[in-house]
Amino acid sequence: MKKIITTSKAPAPIGPYSQAILNGNTLYTSGQIAINPETGDLVMDDIKTEAEQVMQNLKGILDEVDMTFEHVIKTTIFLSDMNNFAQVNEVYGGYFNEDTAPARETVAVAALPKFVNVEISVIAVK
C-alpha cells in the first residue's frame, strides 16, 4: 500500500510531488536538492557544502521511516557539471560503507531545478 512520507527534516516539495513514497518495506525518495529545510534557502556555498545538504535532506527522509543509509539499495545522482563528480562522490561516500554501498548511476544533465549543481534520489528497503 502506498503511503506518502512527509517530514520537516527535508525541504517541502516545490511542485506536485511527495518527498517520498513508502510502498510496503520499500522507500522511494524524490530527488533532493540543497534546500535547507529550516530556512527554505538554497545552500550553494560550494559543491561539497551543496552535496552535504542534499545528503542531510535524504537522511531526514530516511529517519522519518526509521531507516538509515544502510537500507539504501539504489541511488541516482544528477550533476549539472561532471567536473563536480569527484567532490560530490567524496561527500556521498561518507554516508556509505564501501563494502555494502548501493547500486548507483551518475548522469550529467543540462540543468536542474533552481539551477542547483546536484540532485540525488534513493530507493531503500527495510
UniProtKB/TrEMBL annotation:
Cellular-component GO terms for this entry: cytosol
Entries under SUPFAM superfamilies matching the protein: YjgF-like
Record-linked InterPro entries: RidA, RutC-like_sf, YjgF/YER057c/UK114
Alphabetical list of CDD domains matching this protein: YjgF_YER057c_UK114_family
Pfam families the UniProt entry points to: Ribonuc_L-PSP
MF-aspect GO terms: deaminase activity
Family indicated by similarity: Belongs to the RutC family.
Protein name as catalogued: 2-iminobutanoate/2-iminopropanoate deaminase
Protein species of origin: Aquimarina amphilecti
